[in-house]
């Protein structure tokens, strides 16, 4: 993944677009998110950007109106150029995406102010592959999206989940509650040791 970071950094420095300033709420490059599976050799890339010509806050309504179709096309072209630049040296990219800050009119009072995870009002655009990668854990296959709550160290997670099952003394009549389950890896990996599993989570990703 260091190679991807170096390529993205080189691309950014070759362009005139500024990085995002959290104090001025102005800039283009916001963040880079990478997810990689050694078991499937699949890499997911998500680049979060903003309108390079207008402040995103505090006048979110005005910023939204100035995110014109021409600016959107320009951003899309830049992201396609970035994809080609990175892919020329990185062959395992299974999912390349970008997310553009554009607050919806219904959520102007709770507009995104950070660098990552803009929210559901900022849809993710997939330029290559699917909007997820596949990961294998406990002989199961998972689709992992950019913001999914998923363990990054799968070998250690497998040991952890086995120990959890042992500590709980699970048996064939157990009802297992996987609360705040995220992707549901714990419950799914222990499902073959219990009678029922109930999952609970409030985050769509």
Describe what you observe in this structure.
- The chain has 205 residues and is an alpha/beta fold.
- The protein is 28% helix and 25% strand.
- It is built from 5 helices and 8 strands, in the order αββααββββαβαβ.
- It has helices at 2-13, 60-65, 69-87, 154-167, 185-190, and strands at residues 29-37, 42-49, 93-100, 124-129, 133-137, 140-144, 175-179, 196-200.
- The strands form 3 sheets. Strands 1-2-3-4 form a 4-stranded mixed beta sheet, with helices on one face. Strands 5-6 form a two-stranded antiparallel sheet.
- The longest helix has 19 residues, at 69-87.
- The two termini are 23 Å apart.
Q: State mean pLDDT (0 to 100 scale).
A: 85
**Largest sheet: number of strands, sense, barrel closure:** 4 strands, mixed
Placed side by side, the strands forming the largest sheet appear as 1-2-3-4
- In terms of DSSP E residues, the strand content is 15-25%
What's the gyration radius in Å? 20 Å
Q: Tally the helices: what do you get? A: 5
Oligomeric description of these chains: single chain
* Alpha-beta content class: alpha/beta
Give the helices and strands as they follow along the chain.
HEEHHEEEEHEHE
Low-confidence stretches: 103-111
- Distance from N terminus to C terminus (CA atoms, Å) equals 23 Å
Helical proportion?
25-40%
So what's the overall shape? Answer: elongated
């Amino acid at each position: 993944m260091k190679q991807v970071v170096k390529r993205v950094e080189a691309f950014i420095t070759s362009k005139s677009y500024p990085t995002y300033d959290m104090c001025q709420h102005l800039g283009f490059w916001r963040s880079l998110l990478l997810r990689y599976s050694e078991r499937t050799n699949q890499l997911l890339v998500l680049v979060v950007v903003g309108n390079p010509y207008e402040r995103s806050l505090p006048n979110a309504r005005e910023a939204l109106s100035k995110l014109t179709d021409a600016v959107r096309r320009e951003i899309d072209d830049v992201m396609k150029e970035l994809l080609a630049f990175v892919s020329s040296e990185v062959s395992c990219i299974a999912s390349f995406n970008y997310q553009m800050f554009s607050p919806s009119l219904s959520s102007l009072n709770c507009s995104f102010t950070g660098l990552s995870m803009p929210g559901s009002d900022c849809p993710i655009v997939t330029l290559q592959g699917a909007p997820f990668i596949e990961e294998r854990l406990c002989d199961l296959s998972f689709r992992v999206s950019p913001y999914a709550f998923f363990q990054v160290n799968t070998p250690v997670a497998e040991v952890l989940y086995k120990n959890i099952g042992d500590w709980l003394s699970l048996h064939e009549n157990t009802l297992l509650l996987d609360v705040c389950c995220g992707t549901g890896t714990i419950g799914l990996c222990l499902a073959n040791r219990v009678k029922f599993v109930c999952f609970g989570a409030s985050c769509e990703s």
